[in-house]
Input
Amino acid sequence: MDQRPVGVFDSGVGGLTAVRELRKLLPSENIIYFGDSSRVPYGGRSAEILLKYARQDVHFLRSFDIKAILVACGTVSTTCLPVLRQENDLPILGVVEPACRRAAAVTKKRRVGLIATAASVRSGAYERCIAAIDPAVEVIAKACPLFVPLVENGRYKLGDVVIETVAREYLEPLRQTGIDTLILGCTHYPLLTEVIGRVMGSGVTLINAGAEAARALQETLQSGDMLAAEQVGDATLYASDQPSDFGVMASRFLQEELKKPVLPVDIDRY
Ligand code: DGL
Output
């Protein structure tokens, strides 16, 4: 048993979709979440800047006595994970490998789609990871940069003409490639499950990368005998800018009311 908290970080509120899954799977765990709201979005940035930000995010989380880190951010997972793992002596999990393992197991046609930020698609991380699992599986990737700002502005529900138009524009060409599995490789996309599902049709299985990563973390904690003892786990949220606005959006991503205020962090100190 290990009562230390788990650290989770993202460029902003989006990573709370993974925290939601984590809390369902591991309700006894205490979670420290950092959202880098002063520098969001990460999705269009260069690999060098992303590594600088990710190191600071990890440094902040490690100022607590944490037992593991979940990199909920798709963009950091695709661009920085090997370096972060090399530099830190605790388990660090990202979203790429768990999502690829699931996609490779699910696809029958061996054609998997990936939607994510521009930086994630540019990295080629999903193609490399799936090739290592099953070289016969083809990955067809598409960056969807308008999804994040639309979701953050509340335009994510079925029936919203703006998000439905953008979704059709991004996804229709992907649907026509004949994929039967689609990885949602960005924190915000689980909120678009219904909209995306409507365009892709019922023959395409959607993989929630954050949920797969939460399951992988559960396995890691179980196999390392690092699970917390049975208790009601708590989540403490930190943000690097406008913590009260962050809190309002956070409850939408977590789909629950926050029990305590979001705390401010000066991330430049880390
Ligand atoms: N959290 C980012 C990701 O999952 C999306 C938002 C951003 O671009 O910062 O890739």
In short: The radius of gyration is 18 Å. The longest helix spans residues 47-61.
